[in-house]
Amino acid sequence: MESGDKRVANLWLAEELWKLGAIQFGDFSLGTALHSPVYVNLRLLISNPAALREAAEVMLAEVHTLQNMRHPRLAYYDLIAGVPFGGLHLATAFSLLSGTPMIYLHPTRDGREQVIEGTYTSGQTVLIIDDLITGGRSVMQTAARLAAENLIVEDALILLDRQQGGQARLKRDGINLSAILTLESVIRYLGTSEKILPERYHECMEYLGRSHEMP
Questions:
Q1: Taking the model in full, what pTM does it have?
Q2: β strands within 53-197, DSSP E
Q3: Which domains does the chain have, with CATH numbers?
């Protein structure tokens, strides 16, 4: 996918999220993102099958681009693992589209541990897929559980990076993060297309400036 095509596809996704009502404004406490003025509910993609498929297509195209670079930026993988619960619908769509087998973590009844659903073999490489990343905890927990079964995690593919330090934290754990959209790109799109008022735009951009890639 050429950079221009990629940019248009990403803006299409931002537009679709806006139309779905997935982007909300107010005062939200989201894990490490305390008092965030913006909340993005990517689970609403399931309400529009065409948009969900488009999101999976964009993610698959990004994977192909990163793998086919002169110096590949995403390792080849045998399986994909969806992060419960937000990443499961994207991982399922990606699996169906790419033909890649999928696994995921499932908590036991007592909630003390998580079992891996799906068929896998020790030593296989797994690409983790999630809908959104804030601090990176869910991806890191998933990677740790997979590693306990001798599965290899080198990369994570995310639809939206909130830019709250998750990428840096994953890098310290040896996991490369690739994101289709950043929160900043979504806010810039909403601002330049005049879908939000200038005051809201500046509030969100100032927030991102304070929290961008938190340590």
A1: 0.90
A2: 79-82, 102-107, 114-117, 125-133, 152-161, 176-182
A3: 3-211 (3.40.50.2020)
